[in-house]
TrEMBL record:
It comes from Acidovorax delafieldii. This is Peptidase M14 domain-containing protein. SUPFAM superfamilies: Zn-dependent exopeptidases. Belongs to the peptidase M14 family. One of its GO terms (biological process) is proteolysis.
Length: 317
C-alpha cells in the first residue's frame, strides 16, 4: 500500500479558504522570465506574422505588489477566408514548458510552409504568471484548464475566450484547435496532492504514463485526426502505453495513445473554439527515454500533423 501524502497546507478534509491560498501563494517563487522567454521571442517573429495584443493579466494582494503580464498571440499576416484556420495554444499550465516553446518553435520553423494552405492563430503562453513560477495554477490557486467556461474565475481563461470569440466573429470558425500540454512527475508529487488539499478531499495516488498521448473530445471524437498526430509524433518520441487496466491516467484508452475527456463540460481549453478537430497533447519530459528537446520537437510534430490533416481535408472538398 502506498503511503498517504499529506499536503503541507490546510486541514485534511477541509477546503481551503483565503488564509490557505495566501500560504500557498507565499510558497511560489519566480524562476524564469515570461518577458525574456516569450515576449522577446514573439517580438522576433513580428516581421513574419502579426502580433495580436489581446489583454493583460494583473495580479496583486496585500503581500504582493501588482504584476502585469501582457497577453500576446501570433496570427497569419495575410488571413485568407478560403483556407482552413487552426488555433494553437500553449502554456495553459505554465509549468508545462514544451507547450510554450513548442508553439514558439512551430511558428519560427514551420508556420511559413503553411502560409498558402492554412490560417494560423498561435497563443504560445496562456498563463504567464504560472509560467514564471513553474506552476500549474494561477495566482488565485485556480486551474486555468478547468476554467474555460462562461463567467470564468481565471483571468487567463477569460482573456483567451474573448480573443477566440472576437477572432471567430471577424474571420469565421476554426477548423482545428490543438492545445499543447505535458504530464510530469510533479503532477503526482505536487499538483494532485495540492488539488486534493485545496478541495478538502483525500489524495488518491495514481501513476504517470511514460510517453506521449492525446486527449480527444468525448462529445466529438475524431479518431483519424488523432491517429495522424500519433503517427507523426511516434517518429520523434515514444507513445505512452496503456496500463494493465487498458487506461492512461485512469481513463480508458480508445486507440493507441488516445483517451477521451468531455472538453466543454470540464472547461478545457481545447473545447473553446467549437472546431471540428480538437486535441490536447501530453508529453512526458521526465521520461528516461526522452529529453526536453524531444518533447519540444514532439509538440512541433503534433502541430504540423494537425495542420496537414485539416489542409488535406480542405483539399478533398
Amino acid at each position: 500500500m502506498q503511503p498517504t501524502l499529506t499536503y503541507p497546507i490546510g486541514t485534511p478534509g477541509q477546503a481551503w479558504g483565503a488564509a490557505e491560498r495566501d500560504q500557498w501563494r507565499a510558497r511560489q517563487v519566480r524562476q524564469r522570465s515570461y518577458a525574456d522567454d516569450v515576449l522577446t521571442a514573439i517580438e522576433a517573429l513580428r516581421g513574419r506574422l502579426d502580433v495580436e495584443m489581446y489583454g493583460d493579466v494583473i495580479y496583486a494582494d496585500a503581500q504582493h505588489p501588482a504584476e502585469r503580464f501582457p497577453l500576446r498571440a501570433l496570427r497569419s499576416r495575410q488571413w485568407q477566408p478560403g483556407l482552413p484556420s487552426v488555433l494553437v495554444t500553449g502554456g495553459v499550465h505554465g509549468y508545462e514548458t514544451s507547450g510554450v516553446h513548442g508553439a514558439l518553435r512551430f511558428v519560427d520553423t514551420q508556420a511559413e510552409r503553411f502560409a498558402s494552405r492554412a490560417n494560423l492563430l498561435v497563443v504560445p503562453c496562456v498563463s504567464p504568471w504560472a509560467y514564471e513560477r513553474v506552476q500549474r495554477w494561477n495566482f488565485d490557486a485556480i486551474d486555468p484548464n478547468r476554467s474555460f467556461k462562461e463567467g470564468s474565475p481565471a483571468q487567463e481563461s477569460a482573456a483567451l475566450m474573448r480573443l477566440v470569440a472576437q477572432h471567430q466573429a471577424q474571420y469565421g470558425p476554426f477548423a482545428a484547435h490543438i492545445d499543447l500540454h505535458e504530464t510530469t512527475n510533479t503532477d503526482e508529487s505536487e499538483y494532485r496532492p495540492a488539488v486534493a488539499a485545496r478541495d478538502g478531499k483525500v489524495f488518491e495516488p495514481g501513476s504517470i504514463p511514460d510517453g506521449f498521448y492525446l486527449v480527444d473530445d468525448a462529445d466529438n471524437p475524431q479518431p483519424a485526426f488523432q491517429q495522424a498526430i500519433i503517427e507523426a509524433v511516434s517518429r520523434v518520441t515514444h507513445i505512452a502505453p496503456a496500463d494493465d487496466k487498458n487506461e492512461i491516467i485512469g481513463t480508458p484508452v480508445v486507440a493507441p495513445g488516445v483517451i477521451h475527456y468531455p472538453m466543454k463540460q470540464w472547461g478545457l481549453c481545447a473545447g473553446i473554439s467549437g472546431a471540428r478537430y480538437t486535441t490536447t497533447t501530453e508529453v512526458y519530459p521526465d521520461s528516461p527515454r526522452a529529453t526536453p528537446e524531444q518533447c519540444i520537437e514532439a509538440q512541433v510534430a503534433a502541430v504540423c500533423a494537425a495542420v496537414e490533416y485539416v489542409c488535406g481535408k480542405a483539399s478533398e472538398r
